[in-house]
Design goal:
- A hairpin with a 2-residue loop joins β1 and β2.
- It contains 10 helices and 4 strands.
- The strands form 2 sheets. A two-stranded antiparallel sheet has the order 1-2. It has a two-stranded parallel ribbon with strand order 3-4.
- α2 crosses α3 and α6 crosses α7.
- The longest helix is centred in the N-terminal third of the chain and has 18 residues.
- By secondary structure, it is mainly alpha-helical.
- It has one domain: Rossmann fold (3-Layer(aba) Sandwich).
Length: 218
């Protein structure tokens, strides 16, 4: 088993090798914050053309994280406030460096850049066509209504849940019954206590304000 420092040293080289192995654009999903770990960049910008960053209300992220990591709600709040937070380093996972929710969001969104598209998860749920159109334009793909409709249909929560039920999903946590758990906004209203809502908002108010996530009564 490699140490965290050894993995971080190899990550930029692995990203470079991936681009060399495929002639076309390579799309990679990451949960890393935008920064360095053990003196090495988590994203190799020498081989990165751009990024699409999806931000989600931390009140809902807390509920999701508790289920995914097998934590209590209070422990999930602590985890999301931890600056050195990382995912597991084991045979099933390559560790990713998350940082706190606020640090993560700030690292990716504080500097507007033409190579960065920022989307709110809630807007993607409410207006998928508009969100997918933004992605299409960002990637400089031709507008094609049939392809857009197909992409929206096949990425819907219902479709993804069905696919997981029939074929499984390799990112499902051992702590969860399913990876695609609910796919809704505002789950926190039924899952968090007033004290927990207050604590999350106090910890992350600056970034929550930027993305209009602060509850009206706080």
């Amino acid at each position: 088993e490699m140490s965290l420092a050894e993995i971080m040293a190899l990550r930029p080289r692995v990203q470079q090798d991936m681009t060399r192995a495929f002639p076309d654009s390579v799309f990679v999903k990451t949960h890393n914050f935008l920064g360095e770990s053990h003196g090495h960049p988590l994203v190799n910008f020498r081989v990165t053309a751009g990024a699409i960053y999806i931000v989600r209300n931390p009140l809902d992220v807390t509920v999701s994280a508790a289920d995914h990591f097998g934590l209590s709600i209070d422990a999930a709040i602590d985890f999301m406030a931890k600056e050195g937070a990382t995912t597991g380093n084991d045979s099933r996972n390559v560790p990713e460096v998350l940082g706190s929710w606020s640090t993560h969001v700030r690292s990716w969104t504080q500097q507007p850049h033409p190579g960065l598209l920022v989307l709110r998860y809630e807007d993607m749920l409410a207006k998928p066509r508009a969100a997918f159109a933004q992605v299409t334009d960002f990637l400089r793909l031709p507008r094609d209504k049939a392809r857009l409709d197909k992409a929206i249909r096949f990425s819907s929560f219902k479709e993804l849940s069905t696919q997981e039920e029939t074929g499984g999903f390799n990112e499902r946590s051992v702590n969860s019954k399913s990876f695609f758990r609910a796919g809704k906004r505002d789950q926190w209203r039924d899952a968090l206590t007033p004290a927990q809502i207050q604590r999350i908002t106090s910890l992350h108010r600056e970034q929550m304000t930027r993305f209009n996530y602060v509850p009206a009564d706080l």
